[in-house]
Amino acid sequence: MSRGGARESLFITPEQLEEITKVFQTIDIDGNGYIEANELGKALETVGIKIPGHEVREIVKKRDNNIRDGRLDIEEFKDVYTELKTKYDVKDKWQSVIKSPKDIKEFRSVHHDEVRHSVADEEQVAFSNWINSNFADDPDCKKYLPINPETHDLYTKCSDGILLCKMINFAQPDTIHEKAINKGNLSVYQLLENQTLVLRSAQSIGCNIINIGPEDLRDGKEHLLLGLMWQIIRIGLLADINLQHNPNLVALLMDGESLEDFLKLSPEEILIRWVNYHLRRSGCGRTISNFSGDIKDSIPYIHLLHQIAPNNLGVSTSPERESDMENRAEKMLQEADKMNCRAFVSARDVCKGVYKLNLAFVANLFNKFPALEATGEVVDLGDIEETREEKTYRNWMNSMGVSPYVNRLYSDLTNGLIIFQLYDIIKPGCVDWKKVTRTFKEKSAVMERIENCNYAVQLGKQCNFSLVGISGKDLYDGNKTLTLALVWQLMRAYTLSILQQLRGGSDQSTANIDKEIVAWANEKLNSGGKSGRISGFNDPGISDGKLIIDLVDAIKPGSVNYSVVKSGQGEEEKLENAKYGLTVARRIGARIYALPEDVVEVKSKMVMTIFACLMCVSFQNKPK
Q: What residues contact residue 405 under an 8 Å CB cut-off, 6+ apart?
């Protein structure tokens, strides 16, 4: 029974549970499945409860009982709901928070009639239109298109996983080997493989898929599918909004701001600066601080479009003269259409200030027409460019559902809070949250952050990590080498914790685990009739990808199409094999974050995680 189960039976009726779900989804502005203190504060004001920010944070802290991460999941929010409903007698005032019924569609799951959720129509329309636009020329997608944005069409046509695989590759090219996607007239088993491939591949690029299973894709669970689609689309749209891909972003630095400070900004914050940069140059007298309330009248968009559009497209500011807000928004979007940038938002979405869709609209504008003048400043990409190892760790963290989202590995870990969440996921209960500072006082923030980082190192030593010479100050300073040393051991511990649970959940020592994994792989290859063997995770024979492919086939015979496998002569063929091997490994359920290049270059750390994850799958498939 969940915490507060007795309370729920006394106070929460099925109708109230439906209301709670709607309120939760509406308050959860960024759609990450959690409510932050600032999101709850805004919702409380809407129902007439005005309390200081520190009291809101205390409410969150009091009920934050699962992973103590300073935010509420829906189960924790139920407790907040019952407390506030009793204490402040809000009664039906929560209804004012919930989106208008005309913007919400209720549905019952095919197989779970007792659970009711709500879905915002604007997201369904936006994502359907986006898929129609971007995959119209893909021969594999033609039978699915066009998707009718006004019906259940989106969920039905995504249920076999093919469109979702295409979306993942659109967001992060080459994540999935096209020839590993099951196509044509699919059996139930092939459908399951595709659905598993979608989830494991989404996880590998940083999507949080906790509480989403293959059956949810099969059943067309609308709220879960929309949440997954948004994560995939968001990752793709924001991937290049950084100095590595756009060095001219240095034009957005504030007076006295260092490059290091700029690197700490999230892509959303960079986009807001970018919009304001062009608004200042337009002389319109407007700036924005968000993608919701500040853009509802379309005026910032009108001037942004006029600034960034090439002169030959004839984009003008004439929509500004329209007095009706929705008509003005429609005319603004007609100007965007001249740039082939009418995407994600309708006129109504602009007027309502729908955060997700307006963020997507602006990100798409940036990606197509950044219009940033070169400053002449030479940017040393050596210190800025994200390495493959850093990207892998960042994707792993984000897929774990940590908050806030990790955009840059070093600056985002300097207060220790992300690290504590990871410890608590790997070894639940190991973090004494009373020792953790989560809200930092201005005058003592530096010391509080360093104390957090010291505790993070202490926890690592308790987990038998090798942290010789690493102090909390090193994490606070963003020391790359030492931060990576800790993060690698966290990722390794996570992988081995799953393996340990599958081996029987005992607290067996992991001292000889590498040898055990190698021995297991060789035995599995032998029993599967495969000739290859490995001596360790740095074995050069791993480079051509064929050992991994053979191991997958040994775990699940018949799961590999060997006509796709190359001889492995030359770097290109090795990379193709590695890509195919990782894709079929994910298709059978392996939680692999490593990249094909890691296989070709035989990066022993990443190779170890691949074999460990395959060992996990093998244990999962053992007869009970």
A: 32, 266, 398
Helix (H, G, I), strand (E, B) or coil at 264: coil
Radius of gyration of the CA atoms of the chain, in A: 25
Number of Cβ atoms within 10 Å of the Cβ of 105? 14
CB atoms within 10 A of CB 601: 17
**pLDDT value at position 13?**
52
- List 72's β-bridge partners, or say none: 35
Flag residues of the chain having pLDDT under 70.
1-23, 25-33, 37-38, 42-51, 63-70, 74-75, 81-120, 378-379, 381-382, 504-511, 623-624
Which amino acid, residue 463? C
- Whole-number Cα distances in Å, 369 to 274, 275, 310, 318, 363: 11, 12, 9, 20, 10
Q: Which of 268, 264, 321 lies closest to 298, judged by CA?
A: 321
56: three-class secondary structure by DSSP: helix
Task: Confirm if 416 and 453 have CB atoms less than 8 A apart.
Answer: yes
What CA–CA distance (Å, rounded) separates 350 from 288? Answer: 14
* 277-309 residue pLDDT tens: 999 999 999 999 999 999 999 999 999 999 999
Residue 431 neighbours by CB distance under 10 Å:
21
- Return d(Cα 372, Cα 376) in angstroms, integer: 12
> Which residue, among 181, 147, 146, 175, has the nearest Cα to 161 in the 3D structure?
181
C-alpha distances out from residue 43 to 353, 434, 474, 562, Å: 16, 28, 39, 56
Distance of CA 375 to the CA centre of its chain: 33
Cα–Cα distance between 210 and 401 in angstroms, integer? 8
Per-residue pLDDT reduced to its tens digit, 210-231: 889 999 999 999 999 999 999 9
Q: pTM surpassing 0.85?
A: no
Residues in contact with 418: Cβ distance below 8 Å, sequence separation at least 6, in sequence order? 397, 402, 404, 406, 412
Task: Report the first-to-last Cα separation within the chain, whole angstroms.
Answer: 26
Q: Which two tokens stand for residue 279?
A: 């608004």
Closest listed residue to residue 181, CA positions, set 199, 169, 168, 193: 193
Q: Nearest 5 degrees, angle CA 519-CA 522-CA 526?
A: 135
364-365-366 Cα angle (round to 5):
90
Rounded to an integer, what distance in angstroms lies between the CA atom of residue 260 and that of residue 245?
16
Nearest to 367 by CA among 224, 270, 290, 454: 270
What is the C-alpha separation between 163 and 156, in angstroms, rounded?
Answer: 11
Whether the upstream peptide bond of residue 557 has omega within 30° of 0, thus cis, is no
Name the residue among 364, 376, 292, 373 with its Cα closest to residue 130.
364
Query: Is 61 in contact with 50 (CB distance < 8 Å)?
Result: no
Tell how strand 116-120 and strand 71-72 pair up. Answer: unpaired
Q: State whether the Cα torsion 240-242-244-247 is positive or negative.
A: positive
The 8-class DSSP code of residue 373 comes to P
